[in-house]
Design a protein that fits this description.
about 375 residues; alpha/beta; eight-stranded mixed β-sheet; 8 strands; about 50% helix
Length: about 375
């Protein structure tokens, strides 16, 4: 039996330790960056899972009328966390490079089947199901996302490797399905370079109607100690595609073919994600210092941006409010109210703005 003084000391230490754990658990919070959903696909005859990232202010009732562009990402389980983090950071602050966006990451079930356009019986894996997968995206997934979420009809498709092949095929086969395409080191070697053989015809016959394409070209041979025949095919196919698009510029396609000499097929993904998003939304960023001096610059700036990308973008209410609050902090009543009034005119369905006094911050 413990002496009384030791017993009390032990009890004190036990109580302190218990309080520590209770406090730690009390302050622990879950960080959620997205949700998992699934849809039954008749095109593919299977359930398909997709993951969704929503902008930070999506659930804020103050911006209940705000709608968002949607970025669709292939190989979703691999790249969801990466691209959702990039979108969050690139759209934040007083100098956002891109608008706040919804990210939809499509999880694979049978990757080679879904992303390849033709059947190759010589391979050990299933191939040639791209048409069915495109039908799933166009007729089932996109309508599902538009029903569930507040979306703008501005959509971006992002694909790497086989995903890049699928993305390039969608660009020429169903051009209007997406507004912008980010293609990262695409596997254009597929089926004896079939895509390359058909590319001249596509370049002559398709009006791309102000679509945008960012084409990331990794160094697929230089970083290999012993390049395989497929490495050379991969390199040659991309080289031929770039040459053809350079000699015969695609009609009404905003095109950036970016070489990455110091990146290989795997490492190119991260820098290409960032560069691709910046290119797609080039011109979105506005000089906030000038805007604070002349609030009237806002609509003209976005008119130029809209004309460039072929889609009518208006400034997001969350961003305007952010700048209004900055003006309030600096004591500029006149400019804050001017910009606030522009926000009301651009977002007439936002009842919060109509009741908010931008100078006193009272509602």
């Amino acid at each position: 039996m413990l002496p009384l003084i030791l017993y009390h000391d032990l009890m004190k230490k036990t109580l302190v330790l218990a309080l520590f754990f209770i406090t730690a658990f009390s302050f622990a919070q879950t960080i959620e960056i997205g949700v998992k959903n699934s849809i039954r696909s008749t095109s593919l005859n299977e359930d398909r899972e997709y993951w969704v990232y929503l902008p930070e202010n999506y659930g804020n009732e103050h911006y209940a009328d705000q709608h968002y562009p949607v970025i669709y990402v292939l190989d979703g389980e691999k790249y969801f966390h990466v691209i959702s983090g990039m979108v969050k950071n690139l759209s934040d602050g007083y100098y956002p490079l891109i608008p706040e966006c919804i990210v939809v990451a499509i999880k694979n079930t049978n990757r080679s089947r879904d992303l390849t356009p033709t059947v190759d019986d010589s391979l050990s894996y299933e191939t040639g199901g791209a048409n069915a997968f495109e039908a799933f995206i166009a007729k089932e997934l996109i309508p599902e996302i538009n029903t569930r979420y507040r979306t703008l009809d501005y959509k971006v498709l992002v694909g790497h490797s086989f995903g890049g092949l699928f993305t390039m095929n969608t660009l020429v086969g169903n051009t209007a399905l997406f507004n912008a395409y980010i293609v990262i080191d695409p596997s254009l070697w597929w089926d004896d370079k079939r895509y390359i053989k058909e590319l001249d015809h596509h370049l002559k016959s398709i009006d791309f109607e102000k679509r945008s394409l960012f084409f990331a070209d990794a160094n697929s041979i230089g970083n290999q100690k012993k390049p395989s025949p497929q490495h050379y095919d991969h390199f040659e196919a991309k080289k031929m595609a770039i040459e053809k698009m350079t000699l015969n510029p695609p009609k009404n396609l905003s095109l950036n073919m970016a070489p990455y000499e110091n990146e290989d097929h795997g490492s190119v993904v991260l820098p290409a994600f960032i560069d691709g998003l910046r290119y797609i939304f080039e011109g979105y960023r506005i000089d906030v210092k000038e805007l604070m001096k002349k609030p009237g610059l806002l609509q003209g700036h976005y008119k130029l941006f809209s004309d460039r990308i072929g889609f009518d973008f208006i400034p997001q209410s969350t961003y305007i409010d952010r700048v209004v609050d900055l003006l309030v902090k600096r004591g500029d009543t006149t400019k804050s109210k001017l910009l606030h009034q522009i926000n009301i005119e651009l977002h007439p369905g936002n009842s919060y703005l109509k009741h908010k006094d931008p100078f006193t911050k009272k509602e």
